[in-house]
Amino acid sequence: MNGKTILVTGGAGYVGSHTCKALAQAGYTPVTYDSLIRGHRELVKWGPLEIGDICDAAAIAAVIKKYKPSAVMHFAALTVVGESVEQPEMYQRTNAGGTTALVQAMLEHDIGTIVVSGTCAVYGIPRITPITEDTLIAPINPYGHSKLMMERIVADAGAASNGSWVIFRYFNAAGADPDGETGEWHEPETHLIPNILRAAAGIGAPLQVFGDDYPTPDGTCVRDYIHVCDIARAHVAALDYLESHPGGNIFNLGSEAGYSVREVIDTARRVTGKPIPVTVEPRRPGDSAVLVADASRVKKALGWRPQATLEQQVDDAWRWVLKSGY
Ligand code: UDP
Question: Residue 277 sits in which domain range?
Answer without folding.
Answer: 192-224+256-324
